[in-house]
Prior knowledge:
The chain is an alpha+beta fold. It has helices at residues 2-11, 29-45, 62-76, 87-94, 98-116, 128-141, 145-148, 167-176, 193-209, 213-242, 255-259, 262-275, 285-294, 401-407, 412-415, and strands at 20-24, 48-55, 80-84, 121-123, 154-155, 158-159, 243-245, 249-253, 302-305, 309-313, 317-322, 342-346, 349-356, 367-371, 379-382, 389-391, 398-400, 420-423, 426-430, 434-435, 448-454. Strand 18 and strand 19 (426-430) form a beta hairpin. The chain starts with a helix and ends in a 6-residue tail after the last strand.
Amino acid sequence: MIxxxxxxxxxNGMIRPKDKVLVGISGGPDSVCLLFAxxxxxxxxxxxxxxVHVNHGLREExxxxxxxxxxxxxxxxxxxxxxxxxxxxxxxxxxxxxxEAGRMYRYEAFHEDAQAYQCNRIAVAxxxxxxxxxxxxxxxxxxxxRGLSGMEPVRGKIIRxxxxxxxxEILQWLGERELSWRTDQTNMDQEYTRNRIRHTILxxxxxxxxxxxxxxxxxxxxxxREIERYLEEETEKACQQYVQWEKDSCRILGDVFGQLDPVLxxxxxxxxxxxxxxGLRDMERIHIQLLEALWEKKVGSRLDLPGGRSVYREYxxxxxxxxxxxxxxxxxxxxLYPAVPGTYVVGKEKWTFSEELFWENTxxxxxxxxxxxxxxKSLEIRRRMPGDYLExxxxxxxxxxxxxxxxxxxxxEQRGQILLLADGSHIMWIPGxxxxxxxxxxxxxxxxLKVQIYGGKQDG
Length: 460
């Protein structure tokens, strides 16, 4: 098993010499296996590691779990960071399931600690059974190739070295080495959707259809990721050949209908819809079929699509554009309520809003990504008002906007002129400075809002 894990790490470029790896450890068998497997590879692969444990506070045994992890790390001489969080409270505040709230807390802690301790990799203990469960979960909810391929071995800083092994192998390996672990009884609670898939559907498949079901699904996921990667490359080539990009629109040349395979054509349409107006929300297969049918209609024919976009039949092909006009400048003290997608001129700046599938985990001063589903009221571009605040840490600690600007030494005469992105009294973004912790994108984010500001030095 260690040999396979070593090869899987190498094949996927998970760990390189001199890397510092943060290992998430709950105390369960999977994370204990991950820790000891990595310890066996530390010298050979030339990396260092530390651990992080998140106490969700959901079970009476959580304190014992934390003590177990602490003792384990002390025995191995491993530095450990511990966190305690109020999962029930967050789930209630943000209308989340306990599963969702716990996952959000975990990954927030992982990324914060990775940054604080200069770790460039975060290892989590998902294995092949988790992969099969995720594939089924996505399939039942409705998905394409990307969702059916399951979890990626490497995604940003996150690495999953155990995706190549099954849970039975992990338990056998731990037993042979007489390594102990903690049992989380909530993993048996079938109130959780993933537990029902794991203990009912997947278990039935292994017992009554094929004992190698998990292995076959993992192999299929790997093949689907390779197919998706190839199709993405071909879609990019097609975009360069058949699409002309303009300021707020794009033109799809007519040759695409005669020379491009329908599969690639569909993906090209989706790429254009995503980039020329923002996002694929509410976009379904029927809309792609209507786009195909528009080519057969006479010049001047028009199709309106979700998200405020329109497509026109032209002599040379199809023109896809944003239907929302760019409004006049914001009145001095009047708030502006932007739609998504949309582009707005505010003073000398152009604000662009779009819904994205992915985000860049990089610091950009005038491009920010937000968790769309955390917006409680409505987006506003405005100047400051009494009662404005922002969240300054993951524990939802608040700070008055006035106090923040004073701390940042913003001159009094400038404070009232700063344009802000707000959700009611909660300031989401102070452009040029920071976003509120309450809207940051995490591993559990489902919808991403991208906001860009062009103007002044940033736009020449």
